[in-house]
Each structure stands twice: as C-alpha cells, then as structure tokens.
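Most newcomers find our protein records easier to grasp once they have seen one. There is nothing in a record beyond a sequence line and a structure line. Getting from the letters to the tokens is the skill we practise here. An example says more than a description, so a record of this kind follows:
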Amino acid sequence: MAGSANTVKKVSLELGGNAPCIVFDDADIDVAVKGSLAAKFRNSGQTCVCANRILVQEGIYEKFASAFVKAVQSLQVGNGLEESTSQGPLINEAAVQKVEKFVGDATSKGANIMLGGKRHSLGMSFYEPTVVGNVSNDMLLFSEEVFGPVAPLIPFKTEEEAIHLANDTNAGLAAYMFTKNIARSWRVSEALEYGLVGVNEGLISTEVAPFGGVKQSGLGREGSKYGMDDYLEIKY
C-alpha cells in the first residue's frame, strides 16, 4: 500500500487471518468436529482461512474436546504423494520454530497439551497434529496466526462473550460457527467482523463467491462478479 500511495494506485490485498471457529452448546457434535477438523488442518494449518482459534461453549466443551482429539489422532502424517496421508510438513524450519514458540508460550501461561505438542518422529519440518486446551486471550495462540497444525481450544460462557472473543483481533478474513439455531446463525454471522463466515461448514472457499477480508486482512475481493471490480474503473 505504501509503495502504491505516491502514484495513487489502486490495490487489492489478501492478507493474513486469525479465524475463529465457534462451537455453540446447540451444535451437532459430529458436524462441528468434522467441520472444525477440515477448517483447522487443511494443508497442515497453512492457509489464511484456517481456523486459528476454536471457541467452545462450556456446556459442550468436554464432549467436543474428547471427540475432536480422537479425530485429530486419526490424521495420517507423511509423504503427501501417498494416498493415506492427510498431513504434510510445514514449509520450512522457521515455520516449525514459530509453532514451537507459540505452543511453549501457551503452556507457560497455563494451557494444557491434549495431543501432540512436539516435532514429529519423521523429522525435518514435520510437526505432530496438536490440540491445546484451555487457551486464553493472553497467549500468542489466541492473538497471532500460528500457521501450523495446532488447534487451540478456548472455552466461553455466552454468545456475547464468543462474539467479543472472535472479534478481538486486527484480522478479519474467515470465521466459522456451528449451531442448529437458525436465529443464532444469522445474529452471530452479522456480528462477526469477517469477510467470510461459514455456518456448519469448514470449507467455504468457492470461486463463485467473493473472497476477501476486513480490518487488517485486506482490501477488495477476488472470485465472483465482484472480483472484477478491482480491475475496473467506472466511467460516466
């Protein structure tokens, strides 16, 4: 943006995210686990729309955590060219060190490792699919994008608290929620400060819908008819 300012050039920016994934008490557990797994561990957590924080309402927290850990345990780590593999390596050594730093920060502040939490036995830049429990908003896992296979679980009490926690970031690309309550899905979707919201669905990107964020996640949209707007000027 700074480089384009001198000559007043228009920019389209697709930047980072810090996607919340909210699981309400009234969610279908199986749908929530499947959707959260897809949103978090796609490409080993290395996409800008990956769920970065999984917010779980207290009434369903233990049940969800148990089912989610079991699902993460079944993820196969290995060579991406093999059919059975669903989790590959991180992009480089620096990425692994970043993940280690975030996990270390969380455990030093009271979070608990429910699964994984260390480099994979395959070595190189492989890291174990990890679930961290009782994460709070003073931890790096909450405030910054981990960009790796680490799922932080954050308990919350009320819908209002969930919205506040979800919006407590300078990013605003993707958000996800799981609920069977239609009124709540509309209410919360409208309250979330994000460019994309998935309801009971963990994979929401499609070329026929406008993709992009608000706040420091960028400007403009790509995909759909609106994706053309950044390349056009209106003449009267």
Notes: The beta strands are 13-14, 19-23, 51-57, 112-115, 130-133, 150-156, 174-178, 196-199, 218-219.
